Amino acid sequence: KMELMKKKFDFGERVGRGSFGEAWKGVERGENFGEFREVVLKRLFVEKGENVRNSGDREIFFGCKLKNKPHVTLILIILHSNNDLWVVFMNEGFSLLNILWWLDPTL
């Protein structure tokens, strides 16, 4: 799967890493010269066991269920195998994690 990811995407900076996975900013190359879109590439550490795989499956399930709803980023591609789980999202320009931990200084 990593070979496919490298053919289709240019990986940028890593933007996050946790116990269940890691994420990078990236660019998906289009079919025609000059076509591209900014994405976030997320790899889940499924080799760590069923809990991680189940967490990824839930994220995919709810991401697909909530597709086109306000404030839900679009899942573009899912690459799923026994040893890998990659989820590619549209880059919305901000991280949910940052919003969850953002504190309003006026409070």
Across the major sheet, the strand order is 1-2-3-5-4
Largest sheet: 5 strands, antiparallel
The oligomerization state is single chain
- By secondary-structure content and strand pairing, the structural class works out as alpha+beta
Spans of at least 5 consecutive residues with low confidence: none
Helix content: 25-40%
Work out the helix count: 3
Question: Could you tell me the mean pLDDT?
Answer: 84
Shape annotation: globular
Strand segment count: 5
Strand content: 35-45%
Span from first to last CA?
Answer: 46 Å
Radius of gyration: 15 Å
What sequence of helices (H) and strands (E) makes up the elements?
HEEEHEEH
Question: What's the short version?
Answer:
This protein has 107 residues and is an alpha+beta fold. Helices cover 26% and strands 36% of the residues.
Describe this structure in words.
The chain has 107 residues and is an alpha+beta fold. Helix content is 26%, strand content 36%. A five-stranded antiparallel sheet has the order 1-2-3-5-4. It starts with a helix and ends in a 7-residue tail after the last helix.
Secondary structure elements and pairings:
Blueprint: H1 2-8, E1 9-17, E2 21-29, E3 36-44, H2 50-65, E4 75-80, E5 85-90, H3 96-100
Antiparallel strand pairs: 1-2, 2-3, 3-5, 4-5
